[in-house]
Design brief:
This protein is α/β, with parallel strands linked by helices. It is about 40% helix and about 10% strand. Strands 1-2-3-4-5-6-7 form a seven-stranded parallel β-sheet, covered by helices on one side. The model has no long low-confidence stretch (mean pLDDT about 95).
Length: about 325
C-alpha cells in the first residue's frame, strides 16, 4: 500500500472517529497523520521493514499499528469496525479514481484574504503537486474578519497574479472568488464583478441555522445565479463540532444540476463537506463535482489526496469531477 492509499485509510478513520465527541483528539491525531503521509509520501514498505513507522511525523505507536496492518494486508480491521459502528459499511460500488489524472485544485486561499501564504507560495505549492491549474479563490467582503476582497482589491490582485503567473508558468492561475451566499440567497459581490472572474465559488458561511424552508430558497437562488460555477462546502458542517445547514437537498441539488453548477467535496478534514452520503445523493440528482482542498497554505493542498476516499465512497465517476478536466475543458465548463 502506498502512502496516498494509507493516508486515505487514516483519513477515513479520523473522519469516522469525529462522529464520537469523546474521540475528538484521537480523530485529530489520525487526520494529522494522514495529512503528514499525503504531504511527505514516504516509502511505507521500506519504513515498515526497518520498524521505522513511528519516525513519521504524527505517527505514534497506535497509529503505527494501524499503518502496519494496512501495509501488510491492504486493509484495516479497526477501520472496518468503525464503519460498522457508525453504520457506514464499505460498499461494493465505490468508484475507481486515478489521482495521477487530477489536473488542479480550483479552491484555494492566499494572504489576500485569510490564507497564510502569498499567491506565489500557493502557486509553487500547486507546481510541486504537479497541478496544471490553481483557482485562487479568496473571500468576498462580507466576512470582515477575513479581509475579503471588493472590486478594487480584486483588480489589484489581478496585477499581482500576472506577476506570479510569469514566475510559475506551468500552473495556470485562475482568478476567482469564494463569494458569500447572503441570507436571502443573493451574492456578496455585484454581477459585473463576478462576470470578470475565471471561477466563482458561492459558499454558505453565516446563518447556517436558518430554518429549512428559508435555507432552501437561499440555496436555490444561489445555484440559479448565472455566474456561479461551484457551491463551496454546500452544508457548512464541521464534523464533530457543528451540524451543517438543513435544507431540501434534493431540490437544491437537482436545480444545481440543471444549471450546471458543480457541488464541492471540500477535503479539509475539519469540513469533509459534502459527506460521501450527501455526495451520493447529489450524484443521483445529476450533479457534477469539484474535489478541492480549500487550502489556506501550500501544505494543505495535500488534503485532496487524503480526502479522495470520499469521492470513491460516493461512487462518483472520475468524469463527473471537474478537477480531472484539462485546463481547456475546465475553462469551457466554467461559464
Ligand atoms: Zn468557505
Ligand atoms: Zn475557502
Amino acid at each position: 500500500m502506498d502512502a496516498i492509499a494509507a493516508a486515505q485509510v487514516l483519513s477515513e478513520i479520523g473522519y469516522l472517529l469525529r462522529q464520537d465527541p469523546e474521540e475528538k483528539f484521537r480523530a485529530k491525531a489520525f487526520s494529522a497523520a494522514a495529512w503528514s503521509l499525503a504531504v511527505e509520501r514516504p516509502d511505507l514498505a521500506v519504513l515498515h521493514a526497518r520498524n521505522g513507522l513511528t519516525s513519521l511525523e504524527g505517527v505514534g505507536a497506535g497509529i503505527a499499528k494501524v499503518l502496519a496492518e494496512a501495509i501488510e494486508t491492504g486493509g484495516s480491521r479497526y477501520l472496518d469496525r468503525l464503519r460498522e459502528q457508525v453504520n457506514q459499511p464499505a460498499r461494493d460500488d465505490e468508484s475507481a479514481i486515478d489521482l495521477t489524472r487530477y489536473q488542479g485544485d480550483v479552491h484555494a486561499h492566499s494572504n489576500w484574504s485569510d490564507g497564510r501564504a502569498t499567491m506565489l507560495e500557493m502557486a509553487r505549492g500547486a507546481e510541486a503537486m504537479g497541478y496544471h491549474y490553481l483557482g485562487v479563490t479568496d473571500h468576498s467582503p462580507r466576512i470582515k474578519v477575513v479581509n475579503g476582497l471588493n472590486a478594487d482589491r480584486l483588480l489589484a490582485q489581478s496585477r499581482e497574479m500576472a506577476e506570479v503567473q510569469a514566475q510559475v508558468p506551468h500552473v495556470a492561475l485562475l482568478q476567482g472568488i469564494e463569494v458569500d451566499i447572503l441570507e436571502d440567497g443573493t451574492l456578496d459581490l455585484p454581477d459585473m464583478v463576478l462576470e470578470l472572474l475565471d471561477v466563482v465559488i458561492a459558499s454558505p458561511h453565516v446563518k447556517l441555522r436558518q430554518e429549512p424552508a428559508a435555507m432552501t430558497e437561499r440555496m436555490l437562488r444561489a445555484v440559479s445565479h448565472p455566474h456561479v460555477d461551484v457551491i463551496g462546502h454546500p452544508t457548512g458542517r464541521r464534523p464533530g463540532s457543528r451540524e451543517g445547514a438543513s435544507y431540501d437537498f434534493e431540490a437544491v441539488f437537482k436545480e444545481a444540476a440543471r444549471h450546471h453548477v458543480a457541488l464541492e467535496i471540500d477535503c479539509d478534514p475539519a469540513r469533509m463537506d459534502l459527506s460521501p452520503e450527501m455526495a451520493r445523493l447529489a450524484l443521483d440528482c445529476g450533479c457534477n463535482f469539484t474535489l478541492d482542498a480549500d487550502a489556506h497554505a501550500p501544505a494543505e493542498l495535500a488534503y485532496v489526496p487524503m480526502g479522495l476516499w470520499m469521492a470513491r465512497r460516493a461512487g462518483i465517476p472520475q468524469g463527473r469531477i471537474l478537477n480531472f478536466l484539462s485546463l481547456g475543458e475546465l475553462t469551457d465548463a466554467l461559464h
